[in-house]
Amino acid sequence: MAILRPTWQDIITEHGVETWQDWPWDTWLGPYVVISPRRYRVRVRVYRAGEWVDITSRVASGAIRESNDQPVATLELRLLNGRQYPSLAPRRKDSPLNRVNGQYVPLLWIGRLIAVEAAFSEDGSEPDEWWPVFLGELEDEIDTESTERGTYVRLFCRDMAARLQRAYIAGPWSFENMYASQMIQAILDRAYSEGLIQEPVTVRLVGADDFWVERYD
Question: Has residue 133 been placed in a domain?
Answer without folding.
Answer: yes
